[in-house]
Amino acid sequence: MRHVSRGPLHIAIIIICLLWMLPSVGLFVSSLRPRDVIATTGWWTAFTTPFEFTLTNYEQVVSAQGMGQSFINSLIISVPVTVFVVIVAAFAAYAFSWMDLPGGDTIFLIVVGLIVVPIQLTLIPVLRMFASSGLTGTFPAVWLAHTAYGLPFAVFLLRNFFIALPKDLLESAFLEGASHRRVFFRIVMPLSVPSLAALGIFQFLWVWNDLLVALVYLGGSRSVAPMTVTVSNLVSSFGSEWHLLTAAAFVSMLLPLAIFFALQRYFVEGILAGAVKG
Amino acid sequence: MRPRLATIAWLWVLPAFVLLGVFLVYPVVNTIYLSFFSGRGASVFVGLDNYRYLFTHPETLVVFRNNLLWLVLFTGASVGLGLILAVLSNQVRYEAVAKAIIFVPMAVSFTAAAVIWRFMYIYRPGQFEQTGVLNAAMVALGFDPVPWITNTAVNNYALIAAGIWMWTGFALVVISAGLKGIPAEVLEAARVDGANEVQIFWRVILPMLRSVMLVVAVTLTINSLKVFDLVYVMTFGNYQTDVLANRMFKEMFTFGNFGRASAVAVVLLLAIIPLMALNIRRFRREQ
Asked: B23 and A149 in contact by Cβ < 8 A?
């Protein structure tokens, strides 16, 4: 809009951005305020004297409310799942793109269909399986379930990346007698590092931010609960203890925010590849 | 040689197939089967009774209404806002920063977002100082504070607004990428032909963004049907805000009715199947 005055444009964008940041800023500011002040005044009054800030809320949620343990649990859940998904999906995606898989195209369409199947449709039978094998409430249960749930999208994403690799390069390797294993590890994997990173970040955040799967297969027990479950439990037991809730929510956001700001490029790349193609 | 090669190829996909079969395909079939049974362990065959209940009981009819509200408002507003913001931010030099700000909520969990928005919506009776942003603004503008979470006239919209806050960034990023894909010559040619910026938007940009916006709309529609965490944490489906996914959870764990829970899940699947077909068709066309 080169001929239009640009003042209103800037004002509109800046106002929208400020509005978008407001909820998160409010949460963060509040998490640093003492309990009695949060309960009686709005967080925006924190910037007027007397300044009252504290780290007590964080100390309390991390130790007494179990957010420290939950942080570790979230890591124990998310890291292995991310590794499993990337490896298993990479093998499958390679077979779909560069191997002679009879009926492969049809099967791949089924995988594309599975991407959107709501996991609600699996909860009851899988929960029963876990119950009869004694896995309910253990980390292996969520490792298995999360890995399976992440696969359709992961296979889809990686297959789209793999199939776009330079054909000549792979074919000349085959002509020289290279095995699939060799081509996979020596050519496809190194060339796909950015895509693997995008998938890994995506998958990690997806599992890190999950509530439903953890809630159903792990239950609320503190020794295994990830941060989403702990935060949700805090909401139902201390719904208006905002000094705890704000600090706990912010602790649960720390890692996703760090990843987002450090690796935004891969994050966006993953979203675009997944959305535009699928 | 061929059969051996095929066998090797199958080995490469085997781990994925086993996991998908055991944890996705089989359970889906089993859930459909269970939806025709009743009783605590879903052991008594009842035909379509569970479905009849869902489609006639007032409490579950509210669930359908709410998912429909989510579908229309969440999808519509996120796509609309995403489009507007993509077009606006495309014209300023700090575009990357603006997009990142709108996009950040995508990175955090629905659970954290639910806490953030419960905090935004705090309500205290009129005589007290308001500590929630929204009610403080209401009071400052001379209105009465509103109990956003419990007032059934507004609470669904309040929850949906939280969803829009989270997902507009997704729409923005994808639509913005589509916008960059429009060749500058096309826009230049339209300008040379005397089209003004508004005409260019409606007649050139919008038609060229159609397929990208459809992709975004499909993704958001699926999300609107599956929405769970926000509702679970903000209201647990109370005060008439329940949605399918949360209802299923309740049927499972609060009422222990696995048959009815399965029926809710199947309804969710039925609603998503047309979108799944759309995705598969588009994928085949792109091949």
From this structure: yes
How far is the C-alpha of A32 from the C-alpha of B188, rounded, in Å?
Answer: 52
Structure confidence at residue B4 (pLDDT): 61
Q: Which two tokens stand for residue A155?
A: 């296979």
What is the pLDDT, as a whole number, of residue B136?
96
d(CA B258, CA B128): 45
pLDDT interval class at B286 (50, 70, 90): confident
Return phi, psi of residue B194, to 5°.
95, 10
Amino acid letter for position A119: I
Cβ A104 vs Cβ A181: under 8 Å: no
Q: What is the residue type of A84?
A: F
| DSSP at B129 | P
How do the domains of chain A map onto residue ranges? 7-54, 65-277
- Using DSSP, state whether A137 is helix, strand or coil: coil
Cross-chain residue pair B119–A245, CB shorter than 8 Å: yes
Q: Is the pTM of this model over 0.90?
A: yes
Contact B139, B130 (CB under 8 A): yes
**Do the Cβ atoms of B102 and A13 come within 8 Å?**
no
With beta carbons under 8 A apart, name residues in chain A contacting B137. none
Place of tokens 């679970």: B232
Find the distance separating the first CA and the last CA of chain A, reported in whole Å. 32
CA-CA distances (angstroms) from residue A233 to A214, B122, B164?
12, 19, 24
- SS3 string of A102-131? CCHHHHHHHHHHHCCCCCHHHHHHHHHHHH
CA distance B83 to A1: 16
Q: Which of A121, A151, A230 to mutate to test the interface with B (most CBs of B within 10 A)?
A: A121
**Given the DSSP bridges, would you call strands B37-38 and B44-45 parallel, antiparallel or unpaired?**
antiparallel
Helix axis angle for B206-226 and B258-286, nearest 10°, is 160
Strand partners, B45: B37
Between CA B120 and CA B134 the distance in angstroms is: 6
- ipTM for the assembly: 0.94
Q: Which residues pair with B37 in a beta bridge?
A: B45
What's the mean pLDDT in A249-278? Answer: 84
pLDDT for the residue numbered B2? 44
Q: How far is A143 from chain B (nearest CA, A)?
A: 11
- Contact by Cβ (8 Å): A1, B197: yes
Mutate to test the interface with A, among B83, B102, B115 (most CBs of A within 10 A): B115
Residue B123 is encoded by which pair of tokens? 């309500």
pLDDT of A4 over the 60 cut: no
Give alpha helix (H) positions in B70-154: 75-89, 95-103, 110-120, 133-140
Question: How far apart, in whole angstroms, are the C-alpha atoms of residue B27 and residue A3?
Answer: 59
Task: Report the residue of chain B nearest A273, measured CA to CA.
Answer: B174
Q: Report the distance separating Cα A254 and Cα A235, nearest Å.
A: 19
Angle between helices B110-120 and B155-180 (to 10 degrees): 120
- Look at residues B248, B279, B270 and name the one whose alpha carbon lies nearest to residue B261: B248
Q: What is the CATH number of domain A65-277?
A: 1.10.3720.10
Q: Could you tell me how many residues make up chain A?
A: 278
